[in-house]
């Protein structure tokens, strides 16, 4: 999952040329232009039956929102579901509010990637809107029988000191644990070495802690399917948390170094052994300062659709936190609910053409070139549009809008969580007005 996310920074390299995906739920309403007879059977399956079934499953599982959304009046003006491409093109650079003023008091973690430099600018410009900044800089790797922490060459000290002059956001670089996990988890020496490398880097570079991503790797290696290794994995995270907490920040001696841990949403509503579940949340909550919850990538090239359906976000939070009670109140503030600032351009009909993750600038050029009609998808709480490319191949584009982001920010407030944004260089400027 992390690998996919990383590629997302360079969508042009992520083009999927030969994919024929089933249609989105809306597609079943449209006529298709398939002409070859032998394709008709496939066509019916892909474009009618599968979408029809997925609507049913989707509505059944996540409920349907039939309530019409009224415009929300905010300081930057009304936020609506009924928008057109022209409004987005003219308004996206218009940041109406005070760039230092926050609209929410919960924690806001922003990811920044070195391959998309706009994120560095946004972090400076909207500095006071963030409480945690996580530049995606490090990998902890196996190196023969030992371990190395790679990525210091990415660290930009000038940028860090500018940020620190302007605001108080904690700087917690992300580290991906690439190291071969069974070695790491079974050998105490390796475990200690890994922890030491990370703590030492924080001290030497004067970071406020780290964001660690390892769960998806461990799941991929099968580590989490083995109960003993799974326990070792949890133990490793706890030990790392305690090691970081035992060190005072160089900048602010009253503050300990922090650990934010990245977790993915469960793969289905029946929790699997390799899923990060409520018991894990509970078990780690004493050693981890925050959980960056990746509530996005719900859809993919093989099942085009919304990136982060709101009902699915609710389902995930309910699963992790329980529906009510003290537990939720205690644990919710540690969760950084994931919000995507990227979108997807999916191919819906057979043919060639680019498809994959898109950034704000890609979205704007699609709007300019195709002047599409934007539609609001009630169930997911996302905007999308359909267009035909130069080869007459049909695409569906899902990209965040003011309304979709606003609804997710409010959702976080409702649950008492914070938010995390992947990643701030991929959005449109006026999104930051809402934070
Ligand atoms: C913007 O917000 C900050 C923080 O609340 C405040 O200190 C500053 O005076 C505001 N600036 C303007 C121009 O209102």
SSE map:
Elements: H1 2-7, H2 38-62, E1 72-74, E2 77-79, H3 85-91, E3 108-112, H4 118-125, E4 132-143, E5 146-150, H5 157-166, E6 170-171, E7 174-177, H6 181-186, H7 188-205, E8 209-213, H8 215-221, H9 227-245, E9 258-263, H10 278-284, E10 290-293, H11 310-321, H12 326-331, E11 335-340, E12 343-347, E13 356-358, H13 360-370, E14 375-377, E15 382-388, E16 394-398, H14 402-415, E17 418-422
Helix pairs in contact: 7-9
The chain binds 2-acetamido-2-deoxy-beta-D-glucopyranose.
Protein name: Chitinase domain-containing protein 1
Family: Belongs to the glycosyl hydrolase 18 family.
Pfam families: Glyco_hydro_18
Could you describe the 3D structure shown?
One of its GO terms (biological process) is carbohydrate metabolic process. This protein is an alpha/beta fold and 435 residues long. The chain has a single domain (2-19, 71-434), classed as TIM Barrel, CATH 3.20.20. The protein has helices at 2-7, 38-62, 85-91, 118-125, 157-166, 181-186, 188-205, 215-221, 227-245, 278-284, 310-321, 326-331, 360-370, 402-415; strands at 72-74, 77-79, 108-112, 132-143, 146-150, 170-171, 174-177, 209-213, 258-263, 290-293, 335-340, 343-347, 356-358, 375-377, 382-388, 394-398, 418-422. The protein has an eight-stranded parallel β-barrel, surrounded by five helices. Strands 13-12-16-15-14 form a five-stranded antiparallel beta sheet. Strand 4 and strand 5 (146-150) form a beta hairpin. Helix 7 packs parallel to helix 9 (227-245). The chain starts with a helix and ends in a 13-residue tail after the last strand. The model is unreliable at 1-46 and 51-68 (pLDDT under 50).
């Amino acid at each position: 999952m992390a690998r996919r996310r990383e590629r997302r920074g360079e969508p042009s390299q992520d083009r999927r040329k030969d994919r024929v995906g089933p249609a989105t739920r809306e597609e079943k309403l449209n006529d298709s232009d398939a002409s070859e007879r032998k394709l008709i059977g496939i066509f019916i399956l892909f474009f009618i039956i599968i979408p029809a079934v997925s609507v049913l499953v989707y509505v059944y599982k996540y409920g349907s929102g039939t309530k019409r959304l009224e415009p929300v009046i905010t300081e930057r003006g009304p936020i609506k579901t009924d928008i057109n491409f022209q409004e987005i093109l003219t308004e996206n650079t218009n940041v109406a509010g005070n760039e230092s003023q926050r609209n929410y008091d919960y924690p806001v973690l922003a990811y920044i990637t070195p391959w998309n430099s706009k994120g560095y600018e946004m972090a400076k410009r909207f500095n006071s809107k963030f409480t945690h900044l996580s530049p995606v800089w490090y990998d902890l790797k196996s190196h023969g029988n030992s371990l190395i922490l790679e990525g210091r060459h990415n660290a930009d000290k000038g940028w860090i000191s500018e940020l620190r002059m302007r605001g108080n956001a904690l700087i917690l670089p992300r580290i991906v644990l690439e190291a071969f996990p069974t070695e790491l988890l079974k050998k105490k020496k390796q475990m200690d070495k890994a922890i030491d490398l990370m703590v030492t880097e924080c001290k030497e570079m004067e970071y406020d802690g780290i964001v660690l991503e390892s769960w998806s790797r461990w799941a991929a290696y099968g580590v989490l399917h083995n109960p003993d290794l799974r326990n070792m994995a949890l133990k490793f995270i706890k030990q790392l948390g305690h090691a970081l907490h035992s060190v005072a920040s160089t900048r602010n001696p009253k503050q300990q170094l922090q650990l934010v841990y990245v977790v993915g949403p469960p793969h289905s509503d029946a929790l699997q052994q390799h899923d990060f579940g409520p018991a894990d949340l509970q078990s780690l909550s004493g050693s981890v300062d925050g959980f960056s919850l990746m509530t996005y990538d719900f859809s993919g090239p093989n099942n085009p659709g919304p990136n982060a359906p709101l009902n699915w976000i609710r389902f995930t939070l309910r699963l992790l936190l329980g529906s009510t009670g003290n537990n939720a109140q205690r644990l919710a503030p540690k969760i950084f609910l994931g919000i995507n600032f990227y979108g997807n351009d999916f191919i819906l009909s057979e043919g060639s053409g680019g498809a994959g993750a898109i950034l704000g600038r890609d979205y704007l050029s699609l709007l300019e070139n195709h002047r599409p009609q934007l539609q609001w998808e009630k169930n997911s709480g996302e905007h999308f549009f359909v267009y035909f490319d130069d080869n007459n191949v049909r695409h569906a584009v899902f990209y965040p809008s003011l309304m979709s982001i606003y609804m997710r920010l409010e959702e976080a407030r409702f649950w008492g969580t914070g938010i995390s944004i992947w990643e701030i260089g991929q959005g449109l400027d006026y999104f930051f007005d809402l934070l």
